[in-house]
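tool=predict chain=A
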Amino acid sequence: MGSIGALGIELVSSEELAGRLGYSGPNAAFRDWCVSLRITPVPGRRGFFDPALVRRRLDEAQGLTPAMDGADGSLVAARRARRAAR
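tool=predict ok
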């Protein structure tokens, strides 16, 4: 993981993330998998991912946390979840 400046913000490169997830590299299969789980690169930093977002999306995929996008049908529940995460 690379740290950005004095802020201590940790980002994961696409090469590192792909390797940790068992892919040979950031190939088409890895990118398709990321799209299917809504894992997106950090805006303005193509090829770098926020580990907190990756963990949250993996947890959602495994059913460990409720989805925060209203997928359960309740927009109110999604809003409450977003506000509680702040």
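The chain has one domain: 2-84. The chain has four helices and three strands.
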